[in-house]
């Protein structure tokens, strides 16, 4: 569904952010895009959405080259940016202006999502807090029914109950023909929602695996003594003990600790990659 090939891009001369970056994303998945500050997550999402253009290579979405920004491409992709501006108008007016750009927009679902988030639909957007505006934008994004839905740090600014509502809404919106990409630092917010993990680092995609494959090949556990277990691929200690990643012997069914996996991939990349190759 999304095919990025040999993407090279820099904001400033001689400082490439991406160098021959390749990535394929399929429909029917919720991808979690992880990376350090400044790794290029937002930039990559903007490249996919056709908001900025490659220096070399291309991003192709459903057969359309993003940079060409054809109407048939734009009506089937929606990006919820990390920072956004909403005009000072009522929610209903906002919908009547912007929904027509999306032929599959579902008004009933939009107002149902707003209700789920406790946002009164008669309110003016200028009278809303940042979190409330974000809920309007997320509801709008989901109601567009676009094949590709991209969200940059969507849970930033959401209160604790809204985070679980958000997970519920995304899970219910996913279908076999949709691809959802979420960039986040708040991996715990998206636990149980993300089914594939993509990590960007050092101008490249350094890890891309579905959660099932990760748990088939790796075990995540907490132990008191590192000496008691065999090969340790990565360990992080806390007062609760040593949180470790070990190769899975084939019998373990542990839950992925995304934070631990992220730190492991960034600090001990080669042995982890070898397990997946
Ligand atoms: N408009 C711009 N002009 C010049 N440089 C930019 C611009 N936007 C981003 N950058 C630079 O590109 C790099 C990647 O930025 P980007 O926002 O894509 O990273 P990120 O992974 O989303 O970071 P964060 O986790 O902090 O949100 C950073 O070094 C940033 O300073």
UniProtKB/TrEMBL annotation:
Keywords: ATP-binding, Nucleotide-binding, Transport. It holds the Pfam family ABC_tran. Residues 2-227 form the ABC transporter domain. The keyword Nucleotide-binding applies. GO terms for molecular function: ATP binding; ATP hydrolysis activity. The keyword Transport applies. InterPro entries: AAA+_ATPase (IPR003593), ABC_transporter-like_ATP-bd (IPR003439), ABC_Transporter_VariousFunc (IPR051782), P-loop_NTPase (IPR027417). PANTHER family: ABC TRANSPORTER ATP-BINDING PROTEIN ALBC-RELATED. This is ABC-2 type transport system ATP-binding protein. It comes from Chitinophaga terrae (ex Kim and Jung 2007).
